Amino acid sequence: MGPDCAAPMRIFKADNSPTYHSKIESMNDLQTDWLKAFVATVDAGSLSAAAHEVHRSQSAVSMQLKKLEAAVGRQLLVRGHGPQQLTPEGQVLLGYARRMLDLHTEAQAVLKGESVTGLVRLGVPDDYASKYLTPVLKRYAPGHGGVEIHLDCEQSTSLIPRVARGELDLALVSRDHERRGTLLFHEPMVWVGSPQFDVWSRNPLPIAVYEEASLGRRSAIHSLAQQGRPYKVVYHSSSLAGQIAAVESGLAVAALTQCSAPTNLQILGVEHGLGPLAPMQVAVYRSRASQSSKAVDSLHRMLVQTLRHVVR
Hints:
Layout: H1 3-6, H2 18-26, H3 32-44, H4 47-54, H5 58-72, E1 77-78, E2 85-86, H6 88-111, E3 118-123, H7 126-140, E4 147-152, H8 156-164, E5 170-174, E6 182-187, E7 189-193, E8 205-209, H9 215-227, E9 231-236, H10 240-248, E10 253-257, E11 266-268, E12 280-286, H11 294-311
Parallel strand pairs: 3-4, 3-5, 8-9, 8-10
Antiparallel strand pairs: 1-2, 5-12, 6-12, 7-10, 7-11
Helix pairs in contact: 3-4, 3-5, 3-6, 4-5, 7-11
């Protein structure tokens, strides 16, 4: 026998100390149901809204969150009367949780031989289509060739009731209240004017506005009212192109989302006599009628995953 065979066998004894066992017991698996409850609570902003998303009672969601926190040994959410806030540890776990759930869903689909097919009726305002929808579709298209997307570009004030009626499955919208859809990010609003015309120096200030119910219109008028600055509405248009045309021609200044402001227009501020504007809360809003659609599930998930990553 060679030297290796002749070497004495070393026997390692199991560590039965209480410290060792306590470490093992504390390393609980992160169950997918706990992660789903955690992600849903963050996305929906409250336990009650999350309960609806995961089809559980509010108390069940709360219990799953407590189990998750016990498993990781860290507090993940700051409880309060307002929207649920992430702790620093919760922020770290959130990224991993999304990836784990995505891989879980992908693995199930592959092993079952499933391919997602179907129609998704999607609505997006002109403001957000180019900047925010493009990166989503770039990620979505390669793995979802069997999904057909019908896209409607309208203002949020038109898209929201269409989703509520079930005419659209999903829409990227400016929230009209805090519980509308899943919050993705805050989009800054800016005043814009043409550098060729000092329209902002006129009194009263000529402004171009969207339709009556528009959140952008309300933000603009509220800002001017707060300043006590006289203004006059000289141009109405429900389209982004119409707003830009009014500004470029020197007819008026306008309040636009920062992502939609053309580079040839000047961003105006306090030095031009114009105060700050409230940002838009951008959310993805889903119809109740689409809850059973895997095609809608997949695009909804991609919207949340991509836009939160891109913007933050």
